[in-house]
Q: What sequence folds into this?
């Protein structure tokens, strides 16, 4: 079926033509309820409920949903489907199941997550169950194990490079919006609050900072360590009680493992900037993430299986993993800093700042995020353990 | 035309069906002379002379030419064609022109290089014109400029990643023959001379060495800095007087720039191991390579043009290039060491050792190569300039 933009009625029709999916819903199409719940920047999302079950249907639009004059190739849905397939067995049950991908409609049909809510929203509403970040740490470690050169024959990584190298439309967003735009005057950057303008101008004139950002640009594009989610922020995670799921893998690319870690930790830290009284809670989540990530990383990767480190035994590999984790922590620190800055003054900002009740406190929160982000980017090569990162974050 | 293995007669017929190529040769097919000159390990090569001009025709075989029971996918010819097309404009005239690629016959038709000879052969015969390595240094810098993230929009590098990630059959050879086999008992390794056996056994039990090799395995597979030739040894270069040409790009892959540099310098150093009286000549060539490479690298890359370091100006970029060249030198040192070892005890050894007239001197030459290779691999992270590398090589 040639591509067209679905609405509730045409989606119902599409589903009736897909018997497996229709039988998951059960009953007759007239018994189904279809709600549009689009929330992210890029796609339309429908939740479909039937007598026997539910589905989540996500369709790519030919433009940015929140900026219709910004064209966006439909193929991103293909990369999300590929990402889900490449990681599903490793991360289950920490991601929804992909039931079907329609490569003409650029439509993913997935497990419906209800009554889950977006983690960022739950954090803002204080509705999280502490420790949720351990699941995310485990998720990243398991994704890495499924896709890295240390744990898989190099042909596997080569296939992933080939399968995801074409995802340039969304990688271009990362390169521009995270790695470049916030550090230069750019029409995509919203005008900052007047009080924040001097801080923004200082960041955009800070040559040592730009040099450190340049190193992170280089890491992002050259250090092809494993398959990344590529956009692992608190808006890409759904949760209900202790059920935590990662969604929205359309930014997937082979890249530095610390990029996924850094984006996640950056969004946690941003929440604490918006809600300073939650500094200890967020510090505990960052700790839970890192401890869970490193523990699972060591366990899963020490048995090898890949062409990298093939000459070493498990004991030696454990030592080598410690060195590797050290460099991942430094990447994590740098990318965390980038995320804090771009989510504060760049195109796609975060709702966590709505927790600040006065304009003054909001400016103060943003200023803290910018200052911390800059510190992290510059000091990343000097961080040697989690405590070092926590000290730079100054959330406690 | 479905694939079949060409001989002189069927190649003549094939050429008559390609009018552009036939007219380059001139005259009637009966006036053409066709000689098979296969020399490398993998392919058949014919030189065709006609009244008006000459052609070089290289066809992939479905197996390793020198080991017919080792199957080898034909697609490697496609990657060589892609490599030549991706680099031709940048490196001209330091590579032969590709006139035609037949993707069913896996046949490349190229500029014929006569009366050129293989650089390794010319070195062995003392028929080189000193300073030839400056051309190779320039070749590597120009290839990097055409393909790196610093000098090209990231979409260009992504296309190269996609175009070359499938070259797994030949990358498997690199991973096995260069990065792994020499350091473990392996049926592909020829039995060493009895006198050398203790040295080989020591290398294969050397855990700190294996750890350093592991780091180089990781660099090779994860540090996707630019498009590599992938097999840049003195047998992949043709020369006649001051005309120096790089051939045989079928191992092309995105990888660490120091890999191409290291393989080339390793083969120069191996020559000096086989001919110790030429230590100063080889040292001069290594110096010419590195000086030419770094000078052109700085000039070409400092103007940027890529997404990496996009925030920095030319002056800052020049400083950043120095740091980058430092890390390339360390990679170069490590890969140089790997090449010296694998060409001494691995599957594909070098003819330079035939310069040793006695069995004792040959063993001594090989022992020196193994010892130097090991030193380079272990000391690579401590090398800070060319002089440091030359000191480790001890060729002077």
A:
């Amino acid at each position: 079926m040639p591509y067209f933009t679905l609405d509730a009625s045409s989606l119902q029709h599409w589903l009736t033509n897909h018997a497996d999916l229709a039988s998951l819903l059960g009953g007759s199409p007239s018994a189904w309820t279809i709600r549009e719940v689009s929330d992210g920047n890029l796609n339309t999302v429908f939740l479909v409920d039937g007598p026997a079950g539910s589905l989540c249907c996500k369709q790519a639009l030919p433009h940015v949903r929140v900026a219709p004059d910004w064209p966006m190739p439909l193929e991103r849905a293909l990369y999300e489907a590929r990402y889900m397939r490449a990681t599903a067995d490793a991360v289950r049950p920490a991601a929804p199941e992909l039931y079907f991908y329609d490569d003409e409609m650029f439509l993913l049909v997935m497990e419906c997550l209800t009554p889950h809510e977006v983690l960022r929203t739950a954090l803002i509403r204080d509705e999280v169950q502490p420790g949720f970040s351990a699941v995310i740490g485990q998720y990243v470690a398991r994704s890495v194990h499924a896709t890295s050169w240390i744990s898989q024959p190099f042909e596997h990584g080569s296939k992933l490079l080939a399968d995801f190298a074409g995802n340039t439309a969304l990688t271009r967003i990362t390169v521009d919006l995270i790695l470049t735009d916030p550090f230069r005057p750019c029409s995509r950057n919203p005008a900052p609050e007047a009080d924040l303008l001097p801080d923004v101008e200082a960041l955009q004139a800070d040559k040592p900072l730009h040099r450190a950002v340049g190193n992170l640009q280089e890491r992002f594009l050259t250090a092809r360590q494993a398959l990344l989610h590529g956009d692992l922020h608190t808006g890409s995670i759904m949760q209900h009680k202790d059920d935590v799921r990662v969604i929205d893998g359309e930014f997937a690319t082979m890249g530095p493992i610390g990029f996924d870690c850094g984006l996640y930790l950056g969004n946690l830290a941003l929440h604490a900037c918006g809600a300073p009284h939650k500094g200890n809670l967020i510090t505990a989540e960052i700790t839970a993430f890192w401890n869970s990530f490193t523990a699972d990383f060591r366990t899963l990767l020490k048995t090898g299986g890949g062409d990298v480190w093939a000459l070493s035994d498990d004991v030696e590999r454990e030592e080598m993993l410690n060195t590797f984790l050290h460099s991942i922590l430094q990447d994590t620190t740098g990318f965390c800093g980038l995320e804090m800055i771009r989510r504060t003054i760049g195109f796609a900002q975060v709702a966590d700042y709505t927790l600040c009740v006065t304009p003054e406190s909001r400016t103060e929160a943003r200023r803290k995020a910018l200052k911390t982000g800059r510190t992290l980017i510059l000091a990343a090569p000097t961080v040697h353990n989690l405590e070092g990162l926590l000290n730079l974050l100054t959330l406690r």
In short: Chain B touches chain A at residues 149-150, 154-155, 157-159, 161-162, 165-166, 168, 171-172, 175, 179-180, 183-184, 207, 210-211, 213-214, 217-218, 221-225, 307-312, 316, 319-320 (CB under 8 Å). Chain B has two domains: 8-111, 117-393.
